[in-house]
Amino acid sequence: MASGSKPEGSMLWGGRFTGGLDPLMVKYNESIYFDRVLYKQDILGSIAFARANAKAGIISQDEFQEIERGLREVEKEWEAGKFVIVPGVDEDIHTANERRLGEIIGKQVAGKLHTGRSRNEQVVCDMRMWLRDELRQIEGHLVAFLRVVAARAEQEIDLVMPGYTHLQRAQPIRWSHWLLSYGLAFAADLERLREVISRVNRNPLGCGALAGNPFGLDRDMITKELGFDGLLWNSMGGVADRDFVTETLQWGSMLMQHVSRWAEDLIIYSTAEFGFVRLADAYSTGSSLMPQKKNPDSLELLRGKSGRAFGHMAGFMMTQKGLPSTYNKDLQESVEPMLDHVKTVSDSIQIANGVLATLTTNADKMRAALDPFMLATDVADYLVRKGVPFRETHHISGRCVAKSEETGIPMNELSYEQMKAIDPRFEEDIAEAFNYDTSVERRSAKGGTSKSSVMEQIKVLKEMLG
Ligand code: ARG
Question: Ranges for the Fumarate lyase N-terminal domain (predicted)?
Fold first, then answer.
């Protein structure tokens, strides 16, 4: 028989199998090398399940205590890095833990642990508990990042820079307004995350293989013990459902899309041509060839890793489409994308936080990049305030732009006479339209770039952090 494959004796489902498995199939099938990260959840789930079985009278109190003692031993082995995986036998974390339990407390009692239970519910239980805990940590990272956004926005509120559309200079804005444009998108991610967590945190134990539990298991008791927020109410759905993974991948993909765009802006702003920001050494690297280089690798990786996060989402959605009801082994393919996605998202938020907390801004460069044409709208608005219809003022201001281009005189330096010649309704106070700070301050309706509007956004953001 092929080495490492011993279906009859040692493998837990070996009873009806007679031949050996193709050794490659053994490896192809096993998930222990990645699902062992779930060891703790698997053990806690097993203890809760055994306790409920004891309450139901299907195992004795003494048997439960033995099982719990044994499982705590197994847990200690994992924690100490002493758990020895038996290749070809320990197919996944569930079978591995049970095999070891049998060795510690004897197969007679250990063999009762799985009474009325299926790995189909067990894997979902482990994944949901693990994911819930991870997502709560990510929630903390996101809140920490947003606190930095809010703090910087507050401290650097006087910095004015160009705002862009089509990556062309459009109108002057506050740097803080830019910060909050992403900050509020991330805050929406935070709201979504909190909702996702509440759906992830549902108890599948008691669903059985698909049809439910035959021994009157008190599922509510398990829900409480494992810290779930509620039950999965349909046993067939409960074992089939990986929406909690899909939803996490979708959530993380959108967050990473925001991260990526944010990073792209900062990459541009950190070039010598822009020079609005400078990354700390801690988040940049040099070139092995060109001594003068300081590259924004952190930001490039944030941008690059978004593709991988999105790929896991698309890939796993594809895995699920067309699956027939309840458990199919395809679903094992949910674990690795989940693990990688969570790590990618968690690391990325922390890196983004570090980048933002340590970068320096250059107010002079920001200001130097402003150009009088960015006030063309303000010139039009000036005439609007004198009662001229906007469609007309837009045209008039356009003629001022043309005049400036034609003469090579910056728009704000056109003489009063030159302006008056374009439209007689220009008066001497037109000079006031050519002020970047005034321009920014005029945008004081809620959501705009004036100081008061930006301060209000900061308040809104802070409230969302809770
Ligand atoms: N390792 C499996 C998974 O991740 C556990 C469930 C196995 N269930 C089964 N019926 N073979 O999906």
Answer: 15-311
> Residues with Cβ within 6 A of ligand 1?
31, 35, 92, 119-120, 123, 327, 329, 331-332, 335
Name the residue with the closest Cα to ligand 1, atom 10: 120
Q: What type of residue is 421?
A: A
Burial label, 13 (beta-carbon count in 10 A; 0-12, 13-18, 19+)? exposed
Task: Please provide residue 169's backbone torsions phi and psi, each rounded to the nearest 5 degrees.
Answer: -55, 130
- Distance from Cα 227 to the centre of ligand 1, integer Å: 23
Question: Would you state the structure tokens that stand for residue 72, as one six-digit string?
Answer: 């705590």
pLDDT for 251 beyond 60 = yes
Distance of CA 120 from the midpoint of ligand 1 (Å):
6
Tens of pLDDT, residue by residue over 180-195, are 999 999 999 999 999 9
pLDDT at 287 over 90: no
312 is catalytic: no
Taking a C-beta distance cutoff of 8 angstroms, is the pair 395, 305 a contact? Answer: no
330 alpha carbon to ligand 1 midpoint, in Å? Answer: 9
Average pLDDT score over residue span 433-444: 95
Instruction: State the helix-helix crossing angle for 335-358 and 119-155, rounded to 10 degrees.
Output: 10
